[in-house]
Amino acid sequence: MATLNLIKRVGKRVKQRVGRGQSSGRGKTAGRGTKGQNARSGRKKRPEIRDIIKKIPKRRGFGKNRGRTVVGTRLDALPVSLGDLETLFDTGAEVSTGSLIERGVMKERNAQPVKIVGGGTLTKKLSVKGLSVSASARAAIEKAGGTIA
Predict the structure, then answer these.
(1) CA 91 centroid distance within chain
(2) In the chain, what are the domains?
């Protein structure tokens, strides 16, 4: 038994001419509806979404132009100033993620990275371990006799 994909066409396909009489089935408006831009020859409608997209302002650095090194899922560092360290810690104390959690600076471990930044003065000798430190904070900690590991 023959299947549909094996059937050969015997004669030429009849090409239907549109816009020729009303009884032909494609007369009068020739299947284009009535009036307007879509009924005209050479009709081209720009996609509406293009106009919407063109009106949206460009945000620098947040699209395809964003740097390849930018990781959107990385959390921003929690800044802890030298003034905060002065009030929270005693002389000779060790400043680490665990000690900051104990003193209530951070809520939980691994939630957010911490960076010690300048701001305020530091007179106590502190040892900082496992935290990132800004250049001005590093100078102040080392000037007070502290260490950074």
Answers:
(1) 43
(2) 78-148 (3.100.10.10)
